UniProtKB/TrEMBL annotation:
The keyword Lipid biosynthesis does not apply. It comes from the Bacteria. It is an enzyme of class 1 (oxidoreductase). It comes from Mesorhizobium huakuii. This is NADPH-dependent FMN reductase.
Length: 176
């Protein structure tokens, strides 16, 4: 069984990125389990002085979850052409340790725009030594309200796209 950790970069209650990672968890193919990380909003702001024995519990939980996952999935909005602070903060907690090194990672996209954030996130994650999978998944949910989001995510073509993306990512992990 492959254990994948999915992280949404949005804290909005009606987040399309969070809906996408939740749908990935529901639609994981056999042999693949997707767990959604829900601690982003509770993480203290990263401070290098708070590493080692001073590492906060919330950060340790994130580090342990990434360390024990076979791969991670990130779905993230773009704010002002950048990666939202909350997600960057989470990634910063992972920099000075082994959690990210050679860890397979896949990006998922709930917006057809966000090209600056996609590029920035890929650069950040490669710099952190994640093994970034070149494929990915895009389901256009930008501007949709939760009921419509759920309808779109339940469309057979999108369910298939989610399964196919996870299967391809699992193959990438297996060959890695
Ligand atoms: C403060 C703020 C800044 C934004 N800046 C951009 C931007 O630069 N480019 C873009 O494509 N979308 C931008 N957006 C739109 C969000 O990326 C978009 O609504 C996204 O789908 C929200 O994701 P969520 O539904 O998971 O919260 C911005 C939204 C907010 C709230």
């Amino acid at each position: 069984m492959l254990n994948l950790l999915a992280i949404s970069g949005s804290l909005r209650a009606a987040s399309t990125n969070s809906a996408l990672v939740a749908a990935l968890a529901r639609n994981a193919p056999a042999g693949c389990r997707v767990t959604v990380y829900d601690g982003l909003g509770r993480l203290p702001i990263f401070n290098p002085d708070d590493e080692d024995e001073r590492t906060p519990r919330e950060a340790t939980e994130l580090i342990d979850a990434v360390t024990s996952a076979d791969g991670i999935i990130v779905s993230c909005p773009e704010y002002a052409h950048g990666v939202p602070g909350g997600l960057k903060n989470a990634l910063d907690w992972l920099v000075s340790r082994d959690a990210a090194v050679a860890k397979p990672a896949m990006l998922a996209h709930a917006s057809p725009r966000s090209l600056f954030a996609r590029a920035a996130l890929a650069e950040i994650m490669r710099t952190m030594s994640f093994a970034l999978y070149q494929g990915g998944l895009e389901i256009a949910l930008l501007g949709k309200k939760p009921p419509e989001v759920e309808v779109i995510l339940a469309e057979p073509g999108n369910v298939l796209a989610m399964r196919d993306a996870l299967t391809a990512f699992a193959d990438f992990i297996g060959s890695h």
